[in-house]
Amino acid sequence: MIDTTAPNVTSKLTEWADDFTQNFTQAQLTHARAEADQRGLRLLLQALFREKLLDSEQLIFDSATDTVWLPHWKSKTLFRFEGLKSGMAGSWQLNGPMHYLKNHQKPLKVTTSAAALKLLSSLFEVTISPPDIARFQAELDNSTENDTFCLAYRQAWARRLEQEIPAGDGMISWLQKKSLYTQQHARFNGCLLLEQWGTLGHPWHPNYKTKIGLSKQDVFAMSPEFEANIDIAIAAVRADAMHIESMPAMPGFSTYLAWFEHTFPQVFRHWKEALLMRNLTVSEWLPLPMHPWQAQRHLPSEFPFEIATEKLILLSEVTCSAAPTMSFRTLVPQRSSHLPLMKLPVSLRLTSVQRTLSPKSARMGPRVSALLEKILDREQHFGDTLAIVCEQIGLHYIDPQGNDDHARHLSILYRANPMQHAEDNMFPVPVGALFAPSPIQKNGTSRALITELVASAFQDNAQGAIDFYRRYTEIVVGATLGAYLLYGIGFEAHQQNSFLLIDAKGMPQKLLLRDFGDIRIHAEALRLAGLTLACHKAGHTVFEDRQPVRDKLLHAVFLCHLGELALLLTQIYELPETALWIVLRDATQAVFDQLKPRIPDTLWQQEYALVLEQPWPAKSFIRMRLADSADDEVRSMPNPLMQLDAARTNGN
Question: Which residues form the Aerobactin siderophore biosynthesis IucA/IucC N-terminal domain (predicted)?
Answer without folding.
Answer: 193-436
